[in-house]
User: Fold this.
Amino acid sequence: VRGDHSLPGATSGDTYRPLGSQMANSLNGRNPRKGRILGFIDAIQDAVGPPKQAAADRRTVEKTWKLMDKVVRLCQNPKLQLKNSPPYILDILPDTYQHLRLILSKYDDNQKLAQLSENEYFKIYIDSLIKKSKRAIRLFKEGKERMYEEQSQDRRNLTKLSLIFSHMLAEIKAIFPNGQFQ
Assistant:
């Protein structure tokens, strides 16, 4: 048994460090699975959790706007140095807000608003938008300084969320062209 972790044929100055200790040093003391675990938990909750979607009424949409606004404010931090290239979250979320306003304006009276709030697609869409916005906010809370490192896992997760928001915007525009359900 070689207690000094040296490799066979290595000179006395060469020592072998187990891969685990090399990885621990390269990760600067952070748990590499933390982000994956949270993503896994979110995926399970999305897949098997009871649908918590309430009627997508005006109050729920306004709550969604507040969450989206918080994400935009967090992304406007100059230290983040976001690149203005697709998918650019600082364009996507305001466009989503505008389209949701257009939709609500088309369903302005109480009868039409009740019809919209019972629309299954719209309920799922708003629920998903709330979840994704909360996930982005949680990224900033948990990622702290890592969010400012362009190559960090947290930053890549923000980019993934930007892409998801982009697809969600394209979808809502396709299903509600000119603010009307098709």
